[in-house]
Amino acid sequence: MRFKIKSILKKTAYVLFGSVLIVVLIAALFMNLSPQFGGSMSEAERQDLEKLAHFESGHFLNEEVIDMSIDFQSMVRILKEMVTSSPNTAPAKNVDVRPFAVEQIGKDLHGKARVTWLGHSSFLIEMDDQVMLIDPIFGDYAAPHSLLGQKRFNEEMPFDVTDLETLDAIVISHDHYDHLDYETIIKVKDKVKRVIAPLGVGRHFREWGFDESTIKELDWWEETQLGQLKISFTPSRHSSGRGISDQNTTLWGSWCFLGENQKLYFSGDGGYGKHFQQIGEKYGPFDFAMIECGQYDEKWAGVHMIPEESVQAGIDVGASVIMPIHWGAFRLANHTWTSPVERFVNEAKKLEAEICTPEIGEAVIIKSENYPQSSWWENYN
How far is CA 135 from CA 82, 122, 177, 214, 265, in A? Predict the structure, then answer.
């Protein structure tokens, strides 16, 4: 009897070990063969980046130190929270979007900029005769595979990205999956004239077949021209990476779009810090600021703001109107899906800040007399 028990335990151990080994092998093959992960840093690129003050031992650094140390218990708690069903972390039904007619791009602007929110932190921006997609993700999952994420809240998008005839630029804030979506990029590859991205992010586009001449990589505080539109890359407090071995090997940041008659600010992702005031002093005031306010948690407060900080960040950069972004499309944290915008709106009222809360797909004309301010999310609880 004892021999049989030992034999069963031994066989069980073999099965478990074999199963784990198979999972590890599949994961390794996926990470090495899937194009989703993009390119890797070459030794020549690393040596060139080592000359920068904010690049050390193969990794980019934040100007203000952040504490992202997570012990084993915290990691277990995070995983448990993400796989368990918490109340109201997603809408009660599919979120409807405003259809956007791509044939109207560039028309009826009369010298003004038009900003169209595509959910989360994705935008179509028309400004100074330039058409840009900012951090576009038209896919259903903000992850390299559907098994690694939860489906987006809206089944439809305001338009089919393949319907775009041409794009003057794709602008990327950093290479996390909810800001740089491989499937979307491939769909518009032959329509894009330029890629404007942080240092290191260009390697992904090269891996995906983009011509070197179309890629422009910038360091913090560097500028480039897109037609008559000046674009400046500015700091944020965040991180980067698309796999286990490439964490912080590409830069992250925010963008200033400095037009002839209007100025826009796009925060990308990041924690609150002194950089907002520095950006405002150098490039502000701004007519319109798109500021991240969702996917926050006390465990990663250094790299994602809480909504109250988001409102203050908009004030710091000198924005006349502030729009909350990085919410409304995906569940990437354990707060309710509407708490980012609700807290943002409440704080804005306290600080008497003018805000804009458009529906997904609703076009916003900058410097218009009336900005969208409906509480549309209340229809989905």
Answer: 24, 5, 10, 17, 14
Residue 173 tokens read as 């804030």
Neighbours of 366 (CB within 10 A): 24
* Counted domains in the chain: 1
> In this structure, how many other beta carbons lie within 10 angstroms of the beta carbon of residue 232?
20
Q: DSSP per residue over 42-61, as a string? A: -HHHHHHHTTSTTEETTEE-
Distance CA(186)–CA(169), nearest Å, equals 14
119 domain residue, yes or no: yes
Contact between 199 and 219 (Cβ < 8 Å): yes
Mean pLDDT for the stretch of residues 312-330: 98
CATH number at residue 245: 3.60.15.10
Mean pLDDT across the chain, nearest whole number? 91
Three-state secondary structure call for residue 129: coil
Pairing of strands 169-171, 130-134: parallel
- The DSSP annotation for 147-215 comes to GGS---S-SS-SS-GGG---BSEEE-S--STTT--HHHHHHHGGGBS-EEEETTTHHHHHHTT--GGGE
**What is the pLDDT at residue 86?**
75
Half-sphere CA count of 297, side-chain side, radius 13 A = 16
Q: Could you tell me if residue 33 is inside a domain?
A: no
Query: Checking phi first, is residue 198 left (phi over 0); if not, alpha (psi -120 to 50) or beta?
Result: beta
Determine the average pLDDT of the residues in 11-17: 53
Q: Report whether 268 contacts 174 (CB < 8 A).
A: yes
Report helix angle 275-283 to 307-316, nearest 10: 30
Nearest to 354 by CA among 309, 379, 324: 324
Taking the model in full, what pTM does it have? 0.90
Between these two residues, 230 and 4, which has the higher pLDDT value?
230
The answer to whether position 112 is within a domain reads: yes
Hey, what's the torsion of the CAs at 335, 238, 315, 225, to 10 degrees? -130
169 pLDDT higher than 80: yes
Cβ 258 vs Cβ 230: under 8 Å: yes
Q: Is residue 196 part of a domain?
A: yes
The residue segments making up the domain with residue 228 are 102-380
Do the bridges between strand 263-266 and strand 288-292 make them parallel or antiparallel, or are there none, so unpaired? parallel
